Amino acid sequence: GDSIDGVSFSFADGTIRELAAGARVVVAEDVAAFVLRYPGSAAFVAGEWSGGLSNSSERLRLMAGDQVLADFTYSDQWVPATDGDGQSLQAVNEAADPSSLGLADAWRASAAIGGSPGRAEGSVPGDSNHDGVFNSSDLVAVFQAGKYEDGIPNNATFEEGDWDGDGDFTTNDFVFAFQNGSYVAAAVKGATAADTALEVDVLDQVFAQTGRKKSRGAVV
């Protein structure tokens, strides 16, 4: 049969078979090492690839059955900052025509060292209202969305509480957000007694699982 150079991975053999709208998935060389480097990432890692890629240039192809979703050749010289300095190579426009992925202008370096695997760059884990802070206003918003522990698979977005990228809004999302960000407690206008009670209940569960403790106005 035909031989394949480079890396190979079949999502049919991976741990993630479905993605919610806007969700992301990661394929790693070493899952254990990846999860150690990025705590809380296990929920969106589909598995390990086999083989390896050239550091200089190689062709990449992503397929769904017989349909080619993306097919391009990358170059080591596209973005020098991603060549060994810790920043990841990211698409400038994820919604662009896949045919543009073979152009240097379609790529940029991540803003943060190590990139932001499993989530959009710049998004703070837990910051569902995108105001730049993970606080009680985000908790009120996601509780009101009604997706928390609802038993319906793959029906939650980031804005509705799915912060770990597995398609659902569960206590695991709070654990992920607390391990990867900083929660600031504050009173929220419009919060009901039920909102506050649920917030306290969930936070108590998170504290128990993460070992975090409450301080005045914040979680540390």
Strand order of the largest sheet: 1-4
Discrete helix count: 4
Structural class, judged by helices and strands? alpha/beta
Average residue pLDDT: 79
Give the termini separation.
56 Å
> What value does the Rg take, in angstroms?
20 Å
Q: How much β-strand is present in the residues? A: 15-25%
Described by strand count, sense and barrel closure, the largest sheet is: 2 strands, antiparallel
Helix content: 10-25%
Provide the domain count: 2
Task: Output the helix-strand order.
Answer: EEHEEEEEEEHHEHEE
Overall geometry comes to elongated
Number of strands: 12
Low-confidence stretches: 213-220
Short structural summary:
By secondary structure, this protein is of the alpha/beta class. It has two domains: 7-113, no CATH class; 134-219, no CATH class.
Task: Describe the structure in your own words.
The protein is an alpha/beta fold and 220 residues long. 20% of the residues lie in helices and 22% in strands. The protein has helices spanning 31-37, 136-145, 171-180, 193-210, and strands at residues 7-8, 26-28, 45-48, 50-51, 57-64, 67-75, 87-91, 107-113, 134-135, 183-184, 214-215, 218-219. The strands form six sheets. A two-stranded antiparallel sheet has the order 1-4. Strands 2-3 form a two-stranded parallel sheet. Strands 5-6 form a two-stranded antiparallel sheet. The longest helix has 18 residues, at 193-210. It is elongated, with a radius of gyration of 20 Å.
